[in-house]
Amino acid sequence: MAEVFKTTKRVEFRDTDAAGIMHFSTYFTYMEEAEHELLRSLGASVIQQTGGETLSWPRVAATAEYHGAVQFEDLIEIEVRIRRLGTRSVTYQHTFLLDAKPIASGTITAVCCCIDPEQALSSRDIPSQLRNQLSPYLDPTLAK
Is residue 32 pLDDT above 80, yes or no? Predict the structure, then answer.
């Protein structure tokens, strides 16, 4: 069974709309923050030096589906799994829970790329150490 990375987030006033409900766009920010927390827990980052190159993870796709509403001050749990771990990309699956009930889900696909100010952004293979650290979170039941 795949590991699940879990984090919590309290809904801030700035993240709500005029009705006091968390704005739909905030889910994307929270997904990215949860991804960053997962990487930090592995000793990695979304920008890091590897093999003399600066690597980063630009997003190439993001989705969200909403099943319920959350409001200012609600404490939500975010679960992160990996839907797909490719040679150069990773697709994260996020599940948002309020009081253990699913309220939203979404995905982010990021590509491992070299950042070089002298050249265009170019994809790279995911470093083997990071790939090995991410693999326990790969959930084969999520593959499409």
Answer: yes
Q: Please confirm, yes or no, whether 99 is among the known catalytic residues.
A: no
Q: Is residue 25 classed exposed, middle or buried when 0-12, 13-18 and 19+ CB atoms within 10 A define those classes? A: exposed
Tokens of residue 95, six digits: 């599940």
Strand order in the sheet with 53-56: 47-50, 53-56, 113-115, 122-123
Q: pTM of the entire structure?
A: 0.93
Structural tokens at position 72? 């200012």
Choosing from 17, 74, 116, 125, the catalytic residue is 17
Query: Which strand (E) or helix (H) includes residue 132?
Result: helix 128-134
Task: Give the whole-angstrom CA distance, residue 135 versus residue 138.
Answer: 5
